Amino acid sequence: MTKEMIINSSIPENIRAAIVVEGRLHQYFEESQDIHRTKGNVYLGRVASVRPSLDACFVDYGEKKHGLLPVGNVVEHFRLSKQGKHIQEVVRPGMNLIVQVEKEPEAAKGARLTTNVSIAGRLLVLMPYSSTVGVSKKVKDEKLRKQARQLVESLPHPKSVGLIVRTVGVGETKRMLLRDMNYLTRLWKEITRRAHQNSRPCLLYAEPDMVTRMLRDYFDTDVEKVWIDQQWALENARRFFKLYAPRHMARLKLYEGAVPIFSHFDLERQIDQIYQRSVELLSGGSIVIEPTEALVSIDVNSGRMSEKSDLEQTAFQTNLEAADEIARQLRLRNLGGIIVIDFIDMEKASHRREVERRLRMAMSRDRARHRVGPISKFGLCTVTRQRLELPLRLIGFQKCSCCEGTGLQRSGESAAARLLREMDKALAEGNLSKMIVNAGTELANRLNNQFRKRLVEMEITKGVSIRIEADAALAADEFRISTERLPEEQRAFEEGAETPRRDDVEEQPNGNTSFDAQHRRKKRR
Predict the structure, then answer these.
(1) Residue 253 is part of a domain; what is its CATH number?
(2) Final residue before a domain boundary, out of 190, 205, 220
(3) Which CATH number goes with the domain that contains 518?
(4) 402 domain residue, yes or no
């Protein structure tokens, strides 16, 4: 099975990376300068307010929004009372803490913080406020786990500091583990030195650039080649490999083709599919993915397979295929939190258990912590997944200014009715001489044609000149209303004037209407 890492760094402001297995996109990452990434960063923070109702406090850590620090994330080192169970017993406003961003801020929510800091190296994770020594849970072989644990326990480190062997560190030599531990220890000393030198909230440590993070977190012995398309990025990678993987230096390759690197590996088409709402399955079915603020909903549809006679078997086969693709899409899209999957209904309990098993097996290839629940008799399955990165939909995309992210727009009839109601509301204020309405082209045409009679009546009854103008810069259901008021003298003069008859109104060829100038002159006389 060929596994390769592809890094596209031709535009430094927007770096992309992909892990490809047998030519198929397995994982995808993108980092843009427009997105301020904070997860994993360590800050000196100050408790801004304590909220007993949340059993948490808000911490000013130097960013725009304060972060949330739950009581369970306050380690003993920072607690005012070792026996305290509630937030008001363990912290107070104004006290300084060293905090790490556990979860990126999203929408209206601030970041989630922790004081249980963990600094990741290539082979080890240093936990300065924990005495835990262990091995990554992803390593299932008990013999390997025992060997790795014994090796890391033999390293000369303070017993008050915790060390976790990462998956890639299992099987490494004591010399390599010691080198990684010494690097992490020096890094932590530098972080604490900066914390003691500062009294205000500030950044103490930032996670490395994307190329370095990719090599640190995703390169393993299964990766046969690492393709990089820029010399500067290749040099960064070589420096990293020289320190942490000197035996694998030959796997670094510079891509020098004329065709862009992602196009050469046929990745652009596969990446475009990540942003689609619906994903087609080879069998003819599909899955529809709908992220919301509360959760991610995934619906499995049978599609063309529903034409087959055995509906139970059709549902079973489609769900099996969907389970594999759902696990892949969660990785590719960086979706996390609560995920609710609506599988096609299956009558047989054995089929439901088999689909569960298939989903768990597909999810086992995921680095993120996750939990797969049972499938109910209604076909619903709940999955929780750790967010390792920002969801891709938040990188390089912004909320649509027309629909505010709903994906919906008013129909022509509804938009016209809404505009007419807003015009009535503005006219009700009275004492207007002119109303100009700028609307999207389609909406303006609809008013000037379908609702021309209504506009004429509005002009007659309110004594106002109304002009509808098309503005191509506005969305199909968007409009702006501007008005002009009568001068004080004219308003006083016309207060007792009679309402003009329909015969006194002149219709213009373009559908606009205006009062006859002669009628106005008669009124003033």
Answers:
(1) 3.30.420.40
(2) 205
(3) 3.40.1260.20
(4) no
Other CB atoms within 10 Å distance of the CB of residue 146: 11
The pTM for the full model equals: 0.75
151 CB neighbour count, 10 Å cutoff: 19
Across the range 139-153, mean pLDDT stands at: 90
452 and 502 both lie in a single domain: yes
User: What would the pLDDT profile of 286-327 be if each residue is shown by its tens digit?
Assistant: 999 999 888 999 999 987 655 555 888 999 999 999 999 999
Question: Does residue 67 sit in the same domain as residue 157?
Answer: yes
400 inside domain: no
Residue 3's SS3 state is strand
401 assigned to some structural domain: no
CATH number for position 75: 2.40.50.140
Q: What is the 3-state secondary structure (H, E, C) of 298-322?
A: EEEECHHHHHCCCHHHHHHHHHHHH
Q: Which of 364, 394, 424 is the last residue of a domain?
A: 394
DSSP 401: T
Amino acid identity, position 93: P
Q: How confident is the model at residue 494 (pLDDT cuts 50, 70, 90)?
A: low
Can you tell me the mean pLDDT for 236-257? 92
Q: Could you tell me the two tokens for 294?
A: 């509360």
Residue 101, domain extent: 42-205
Kindly list the distances between the CA atom of residue 250 and the CA atoms of 139, 169, 173, 182, 227, in Å, as whole numbers in the listed order: 27, 20, 20, 26, 11
The pLDDT value given to residue 388: 81
Say what the pLDDT of residue 101 is. 96
Assess whether pLDDT exceeds 60 at residue 515. no
Rounded distance, CA 214 to CA 237, Å? 10
Burial of 58 (0-12, 13-18, 19+ CB in 10 A): buried
How many helices, marked H, and strands, marked E, lie in the chain? 14, 26
Domains contained in the chain, number:
4
Tens-digit pLDDT profile for residues 332-376: 998 999 999 999 999 999 999 999 999 999 999 888 899 999 999
30 in Cβ contact with 96 (< 8 Å): no
Residue 450 DSSP one-character state:
T
Residue at 193 is within a domain: yes
Taking the C-alpha atoms of residue 522 and residue 525, their distance in angstroms, rounded to an integer, is: 5
Biggest distance spanned by C-alpha atoms of the chain: 107
